[in-house]
Amino acid sequence: MKYLSIAVSLLLLCACSMPLVALAQQEAAPAGPPPRAMPGPPSGFRHGPGGPGAPGLPPFLHGIDLSEAQQDKIFAATYAQAPLLREQEKIAFKAHEQLRALAASSAYDDAQASALANTAAQAMAKISLQHARLEQQLLAVLTPAQRQQVQQRHDSRQGPRDLRRSG
How far is residue 125 from each of residues 21, 48, 89, 95, 158, measured CA to CA in Å? Predict the structure, then answer.
């Protein structure tokens, strides 16, 4: 009983001190831009107009000089797909999680495992299709010279990989 009262006291102490810790962190925060309203770009898109580290652009657009209007269109297209991707990622994750649990259980059912695998595969296929659609949308925003730049960079990256595979 003594240990229970000590544990409860510690929990209450922690709960009461949390606002003070938050206040202290706020005061110690450096001056600068306010935190972003959105947690970040959708998965796979971690870099931005300034190159690596800048949010908003997929990696294949790094180093491409974009106008502000192009950046806005790319931002809008990238964030518009986020809800669909999030939903499909949740479906795929849950199906994989259930499949792992089923495989570890003593009540394994091959038909149920097959259905879960198909659910996960369909979600991943929708994600891949959405990525392809987004890439096509983003390429449509670019000028012909910018698209050529992207293609040249893509081709230059493909060359060494193809040589490694054949060797």
Answer: 45, 26, 11, 14, 24
Closest CA to 133 of 42, 12, 36: 42
pLDDT in tens, 105-124: 999 999 999 999 999 999 99
Q: Residues 6 or more apart from 117 whose CB is under 8 A from it?
A: 95, 99
What is the rounded distance in angstroms from the CA atom of residue 133 to the CA atom of residue 131? 5
Q: What is the pLDDT of residues 124-144, one digit of tens each?
A: 999 999 999 999 999 999 999
d(CA 140, CA 132): 12
Structure tokens at 101: 């649990």
What are the residue ranges of helices labelled H in 29-167? 68-80, 82-104, 110-141, 144-166
How does residue 16 score in pLDDT terms, banded at 50, 70 and 90? very low
Is the separation of the CB atoms in 62 and 51 below 8 Å? yes
CA angle 48, 50, 53 (to 5 degrees): 60
Alpha-carbon dihedral of residues 21, 26, 27, 31, nearest 10 degrees? 160
Taking CA 97 as the corner, what is the angle to CA 79 and CA 134, rounded to the nearest 5 degrees? Answer: 20
